[in-house]
Amino acid sequence: MDEIKNFRGSTPTITRQAEDAARARLLRAMSEPAPAPRRRRLPRPVWSTALAASLAVAVGVGVTLAREPAFAPVASVQELSERAARAAETDPYETVPSPGKWLYVKESIAPLRAEPAPEVDRDRRTTLELWNSVDGRQTALDDGTGRLVIHESGPGVTAADLAEDPVTPERTLARIRAAVAARAPEPGDDKPVEQRIVQTIAQVMSEQAVEQKVRAALFRALPMVQGVSVRQDAVDAAGRHGIALVYTGPWERFELILGPEDYRFLGTYSETVATRTYTAGQPREVKAGTPVGWTAHLESEIVDKPGDRP
Known about the structure:
Blueprint: H1 2-5, H2 16-29, H3 77-89, E1 102-109, E2 126-133, E3 138-142, E4 148-152, H4 159-162, H5 169-182, H6 193-207, H7 212-221, E5 228-235, E6 241-248, E7 252-258, E8 265-272, E9 276-278, E10 284-286, E11 291-303
Antiparallel strand pairs: 1-2, 1-11, 2-3, 3-4, 5-6, 6-7, 7-8, 8-11, 9-10
Helix pairs in contact: 3-7, 5-6, 5-7
């Protein structure tokens, strides 16, 4: 299940027995058709890399990207972030979940082409379901036997942490930077701090119920990260076209993809920008232009408890 570790950055501890059961379940599911993406309504959480989502519901399918009409480009990363922030501030679907509730999240990723190489398969998808506590500290997953298991998880910073006044782009970025600095990267993970910051923002957006003012601050903080720019036409793992806030580092490009009209979070894409040798596990060369991550955020809704679906 290394492809899912490639999808999110923080991995909770799981048992070997549960991991083996999840692997078997994933392989059985690979021949089943995937459900059509469902448009998310409430709430509007506002990018990863891997819970033990090896224990999530999984389906593999072939995917054809759809052609969509062009949309108006933005002039700069500052313009895109400001448009997205203003859309977040006026979101008509804003909701403040009650304590004790859970956020149901449904996502699609491109799985690894051949473990343990980091390249993902552009032609297949794995669909994941998970439940995150609204305090951002726990995740419930299927252990592969139909039983939900709750793990401590998260990127080290929660929506509640970010909502503490004053909420400004500068303070929001400082809190995320501190959380990134406090978490040791996984063995072999040599991503720059700036990339880890952008990926943490994406994870908060995709997995937590975030207040309007915090979403706006997250968007306004992104241009403050060195290396962030705009990609005018990006495509998520569900084939939806959008516009992306992009971090480009020495080895990888990471795209946080937004809807071109409402600026809702759609998903992520990452690709190598230079040929290099990965040293984690067995050393292997990965050429520039290799896709190493592709996701789509399909649905998220507040529910009463883990296992509930909208």
